[in-house]
Write a structure and sequence with these properties.
Number of strands: 9
Number of helices: 5
Strand content: 25-35%
Largest sheet: 7 strands, antiparallel
Structural class: alpha+beta
Helix content: 25-40%
Shape: globular
Order of helices and strands: HEHEHEEEEEHEEH
Amino acid sequence: MNKQEQELRKKSPVQIKNRKASFEYFFIEEYTAGIVLTGTEIKSIRLGKASLVDTYCTIINGELWVKGMNISPYFYGSYNNHEMKRDRKLLLTKREIAKLASATKQTGYTIVPLLVFIDEKGRAKMDIALCKGKKEFDKRQTLKEKEDRREMDRAMKVYK
């Protein structure tokens, strides 16, 4: 991911993050995928009514799917509304999907959604990552580093 792409993500009006992902996993490789959505789903995402809690990606028949993603029903959707937790297809190239499929066959590796955002053309995109699960001591180390950063920030505020 280059600097220009990162700036576009920061400017996006919608940023739905998976906050637990960085605590639970080491990120090996990151990808940006398109999401196949219905009309009421994209409207709900633009309102920020989505959640990535307990979501994961799986490869079925050479296609990448996100499971467990919650998109709340659109308020004005009437009978055309969508199901909240249906499986949604992600769009990547065949080469990227093949690479992810071979990597996830190894034990300990999985594909986790990190961020849903709206790009400059108004389309919903999802950042996903090939991840390796952290052990308990790795999680303790992450908490310790976070605590150290907080203390340093507090100390810097006192000196200013």
